[in-house]
Design brief:
Radius of gyration: 23 Å
Shape: extended
Largest sheet: none
Number of helices: 4
Distance between the termini: 29 Å
Strand content: under 5%
Number of strands: 0
Helix content: 40-55%
């Protein structure tokens, strides 16, 4: 039974690796591309109100940090959903956002580890 399981896992791994192979229409004459990495620059929308006339502050940053795991997934499917509000008041919003993200992951981390290893 163990040999069959190892063989099946090997076949599944082989199929998965074959699926990652490039297609047959590979263009080797394409020019080389360059990627430029740079630090993010200043936000031109800081302290500018959004369409509703409001500028996001520390409390909205905290809320956006709390809901960031959900909004990042939604942003893959809907372009109108963004994870970060660009119309913010700067450092205070950033602080709230990072605190919100940290609290979410701390709570998830502490709640996921409870009760392990104590049951017999």
């Amino acid at each position: 039974m163990k040999k069959i399981l190892v063989f099946v896992l090997f076949v599944v791994l082989l199929v998965m690796l074959a699926a990652c192979a490039p297609g047959t229409k590979l263009d080797l004459d394409a020019p080389a591309t360059q990627k430029q990495f740079s630090m993010p620059g200043p936000n031109p929308e800081v302290d500018k109100p959004a369409e509703n006339g409001l500028v996001a502050g520390v409390l909205q940053g905290l809320w956006h940090g709390f809901i960031s795991p959900v909004t990042v997934i939604l942003s893959f499917f809907k372009e109108s959903v963004q994870m970060y509000e660009v119309h913010n008041d700067g450092k205070e919003y950033n602080l709230g956002f990072l605190l919100g993200v940290a609290i979410v992951f701390l709570v998830l981390g502490f709640s996921g580890g409870r009760g392990r290893g104590r049951r017999r």
